[in-house]
Design brief:
72% helix, mainly alpha, globular, single chain, 266 residues, disordered N terminus
Length: 266
C-alpha cells in the first residue's frame, strides 16, 4: 500500500502543450467574464454593438432617402465597408487594453504578456465572426442576399482587416508602455481613420491627388478589397502587398518590442 501524500511515478502528467492550452483557455474565459459582465447577455451586447453601428448607418440613409454610391442596395454597401473597418478598429483597440486590464496576471510565472495578448486576440476574432454572422442573418431576414459575387476576395479582405487589427494593436501595446495617454489618443485617431476610410462614400470618386493620399490609409485598402468581392466592376486597384505587409510589419515590430523592451520594463 502506498503512503499517503506520495505521488505515483506512473501518475499522468500534463504536457507542456496541455498546460499552455489550459492557461490560454483560462485567460480567454476570464477575459470574457470580466469584460462582458459574466453573463451571456453581456457578451451578446458586445457582439451586437458593431451590428447596431452598421444598421444605424443604413437607417440614417433610408430616412434621408439617399441612394448608395454604387449599386441599389444600401444595407449591402454600408455593411461591406463598416464590417471590415470595425473589425480592424475593435481588435487594435482591445488588444491594447488587454495589457492594462490583465497586467497583474503576468506576475504569475505561468502567464506571460504574450499569452494575455494572444488570448485577447482570439476572443476578438471570435467576437468579430459572430458579429459578421449576425449581420448576414439580419440581411437574409430582410430579403437581402449577403453572399458576395467573389466570396474568396471578400473573405481575404476581411482577414486582411483582422491582420491589420492585430498588427496595430501589438504596436499600441508597445506605445502605451511608454505613453499611457496614447490609449485615449488612439481612440481619437481611429475616428479620423474611420471618417476617411470610405465606409459612407467611395474614395475613388474624389480628386485623384486626394484619393492617392487616402490610399496610404490601410483601412481604405481593406474596405475596397472587401467591396471588390461584392462589386467586381468597382474601378479601384487594391495594393494587396502594401496592405498585408503593413499588418505584418506592425506585428513584427510590436512582438520585437514586447520581447526585448516591454518585458524588461515589467
Amino acid at each position: 500500500m502506498e503512503a499517503s501524500g506520495v505521488i505515483r511515478a506512473d501518475a499522468p502528467r500534463r504536457s507542456a502543450r496541455e498546460a499552455y492550452l489550459h492557461v490560454l483557455a483560462a485567460l480567454m474565459l476570464r477575459d470574457m467574464r470580466t469584460r462582458f459582465g459574466g453573463s451571456h447577455w453581456g457578451y451578446a451586447i458586445v457582439v451586437l454593438w458593431p451590428v447596431v453601428h452598421v444598421f444605424m448607418l443604413v437607417l440614417i440613409y433610408v430616412l434621408r432617402n439617399l441612394p448608395a454610391p454604387i449599386g441599389d442596395n444600401r444595407p449591402l454597401f454600408f455593411a461591406s465597408g463598416a464590417v471590415p473597418v470595425l473589425a480592424f478598429q475593435y481588435i487594435s483597440r482591445e488588444v491594447m487594453k488587454a495589457v492594462i486590464a490583465n497586467r497583474p496576471l503576468t506576475y504569475y510565472p505561468q502567464v506571460k504578456l504574450f499569452d494575455v495578448l494572444f488570448a485577447r486576440i482570439l476572443v476578438e476574432i471570435v467576437t468579430g465572426f459572430l458579429g459578421l454572422l449576425t449581420v448576414f442573418a439580419i440581411l437574409v431576414a430582410s430579403g437581402v442576399n449577403p453572399v458576395p459575387v467573389a466570396p474568396f476576395t471578400a473573405m481575404c479582405g476581411y482577414l486582411a482587416a483582422i491582420l491589420l487589427g492585430i498588427g496595430v494593436g501589438t504596436i499600441n501595446v508597445a506605445i502605451i508602455a511608454f505613453f499611457p495617454a496614447w490609449m485615449m489618443g488612439f481612440i481619437l485617431f481611429t475616428i479620423i481613420i474611420y471618417i476617411t476610410s470610405g465606409v459612407m462614400f467611395l474614395p475613388n470618386f474624389l480628386p485623384e491627388p486626394i484619393y492617392q493620399v487616402l490610399k496610404y490609409n490601410p483601412a481604405v485598402q481593406v474596405i475596397e478589397w472587401v467591396r471588390l468581392g461584392y462589386y467586381p466592376d468597382l474601378p479601384v486597384t487594391v495594393d494587396y502587398a502594401y496592405t498585408v505587409l503593413f499588418g505584418l510589419t506592425c506585428l513584427t515590430i510590436g512582438l520585437f518590442l514586447e520581447k526585448h523592451v516591454i518585458r524588461k520594463l515589467t
